[in-house]
Amino acid sequence: MSDTADERYMKEALKQAKKAAAIMETPIGCVIVRDGKIIARGYNKRNLKKNTLAHAEILAINKASRVVGDWRLEDCTLYVTLEPCPMCAGAIVQARIPRVVIGAMNGKAGCAGSVVDLLRHPGFNHQAQVETGVLEEDCAAMLSGFFKELRRARKEAKAALTSEAKKAILDTTKETS
Ligand SMILES: [Zn+2]
Hints:
By secondary structure, this protein is α/β, with parallel strands linked by helices. The protein is about 45% helix and about 15% strand. The protein has four helices and five strands, in the order αββαβαββα. A five-stranded mixed β-sheet has the order 2-1-3-4-5. α1 (about 5-20) runs parallel beside α4. The site of zinc ion has 6 residues, from α3.
């Protein structure tokens, strides 16, 4: 079965997420598409930039606005591997992005229906069309794999530290005996 257009672009967003994982950032990736062309890419750089605003979607929206030359991204579709947080959902509404395609849902912070639905809130002057579950398993696996690896690395570091400490203690006792 060949990929749908949404799946093809979500794969591009996943490639961005992978770049985040490579620098030990939570792997979340985003692309913005206009007229069948990717005009902006972004991945989470919160730790790298030491900046709470450096989410994948915000970085991609910034880039897309520079490309389009407007704060309004009215003919664009935003693809993101994880359901947007309140800040990013807010930025999507502000940028008037008409369509949002989401990979995995985020029960703890998602604002496209999980915690609240900012993207389709009838009280705002803009509602996006939202597509969820596109390559959901791949997007979720990217995150769970990353956290699993992080836990393993932490455990290993702790174990290494412990054996170093043991050796140091043994060496000290040797010297004093
Ligand atoms: Zn966000």
